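Example S7 (structure tokens).
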């Protein structure tokens, strides 16, 4: 693992310290890694949502569509 030094104003450092102490993180590095991973997940989800919004419509979301969706979910859950 490589290291990176960052400078924070005192109010941000205090906030990070409070988060570490109050949320069970061992170090500020652990807290910051978690924040970065969450941001990566958020960006990936946003990209998927934008791709879905830009994709062409394939059909109507009627009762039959949702029945099929429930059936697929049950089949996958059953293994």
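Recovered sequence:
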């Amino acid at each position: 693992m490589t290291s990176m030094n960052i400078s924070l104003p005192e109010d941000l450092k205090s906030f990070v310290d409070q988060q570490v102490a109050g949320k069970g993180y061992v170090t500020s590095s652990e807290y910051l890694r978690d924040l970065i991973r969450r941001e990566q997940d958020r960006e990936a989800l946003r990209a998927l949502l934008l791709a879905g919004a830009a994709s062409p419509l394939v059909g109507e979301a009627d009762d039959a569509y949702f029945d099929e969706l429930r059936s697929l979910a049950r089949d996958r859950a059953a293994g």
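Notes on this example. Residues 10-78 form one domain.
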